[in-house]
């Protein structure tokens, strides 16, 4: 099964169980993926998190039921996963800009979020520059934090982590320590192998280094891999985000490779990250 079909299978599962207690581990399992890689790919392709998609779809169906039935608002609150009518009303107003009572009286407009269908984009208008390299295992040293990607903690926490590392000078020190096989400072995502039991990832801000692990830093070995290395040109974070989207929406569907499931790298060069000429890379392990 291709990766597009796998993601669509997971979306179909969510739709078939919208009124049930959906567990992120089971959704990812439908796509034959780890929680982290599924959530990351889903967000890149759709510009929305899995949790937000489920919430928006439930509130869309709730609005339709309000308009077309006489079911009580309190019953709809519980049906669509809210513990109290107050919580349901708050979420409903946030999405639709009107209350459930106002919707029933047809006093405003509603927002409808429709069922997603993943379509492959093979535009090819913007060429992608990449190379395939094979490397033996190598060591990275740096700092790390653990995030729970079930609730989207990684999406909020990782940018804050980078801000702190840039502010306290850790990034400059990592550039100085760099003497390994990959030049630059790295963002490294390491998903927990036992993804059926938890949804944790380690995120490292690190550099490659041969020899000792300096005090106050941690070390980790990146396994020998075949890598596809994509060039990224332009200011952060937009250039990096746009390249990730192009990789998953265009490159993977038109190439025979699969993600190997081992750590992936974002590689940042020393320079002005706001410059239109800034250069960085994305390293994805493939099989």
TrEMBL record:
Keywords: DNA-binding, Transcription, Transcription regulation. It comes from Psychrobacillus glaciei. InterPro entries: AraC_E-bd, Cass2, Homeodomain-like_sf, HTH_AraC, HTH_AraC-typ_CS, MarA-like, Reg_factor_effector_dom_sf. Coiled coil: none annotated. Residues 8-106 form the HTH araC/xylS-type domain. This is AraC family transcriptional regulator. GO terms for molecular function: DNA-binding transcription factor activity; sequence-specific DNA binding. PANTHER family: RIGHT ORIGIN-BINDING PROTEIN. The keyword Transferase does not apply. Pfam families: Cass2, HTH_18.
């Amino acid at each position: 099964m291709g990766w597009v079909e796998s993601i669509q299978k997971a979306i179909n599962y969510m739709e078939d169980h919208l009124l049930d207690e959906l567990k992120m581990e089971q959704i990812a399992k439908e796509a034959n993926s780890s929680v982290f890689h599924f959530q990351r790919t889903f967000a890149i392709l759709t510009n929305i998190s899995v949790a937000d998609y489920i919430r928006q779809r439930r509130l869309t169906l709730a609005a339709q039921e309000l308009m077309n039935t006489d079911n009580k608002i309190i019953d709809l609150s519980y049906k669509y996963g809210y513990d109290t009518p107050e919580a349901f009303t708050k979420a409903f107003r946030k999405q639709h800009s009107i209350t459930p009572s106002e919707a029933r009286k047809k006093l405003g407009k509603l927002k409808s979020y429709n069922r997603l269908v993943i379509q492959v984009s093979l535009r090819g208008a913007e060429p992608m520059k990449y190379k395939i390299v094979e490397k033996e295992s190598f060591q990275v040293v740096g700092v790390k934090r653990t995030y729970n990607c079930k609730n989207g903690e990684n999406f909020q926490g990782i940018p804050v982590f980078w801000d702190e590392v840039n502010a306290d000078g850790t990034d400059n020190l990592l550039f100085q320590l760099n003497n390994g096989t990959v030049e630059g400072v790295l963002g490294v995502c390491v998903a927990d192998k036992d993804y059926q039991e938890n949804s944790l990832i380690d995120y490292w801000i690190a550099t490659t280094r041969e020899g000792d692990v300096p005090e106050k830093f941690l070390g980790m070995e990146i396994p020998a891999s075949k890598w596809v290395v994509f060039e990224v040109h332009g200011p952060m974070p937009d250039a990096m985000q746009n390249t990730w989207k192009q990789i998953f929406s265009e490159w993977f569907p038109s190439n025979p490779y699969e993600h190997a499931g081992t750590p992936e790298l974002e590689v940042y060069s020393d320079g002005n990250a706001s410059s239109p000429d800034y250069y960085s890379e994305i390293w994805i392990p493939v099989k």
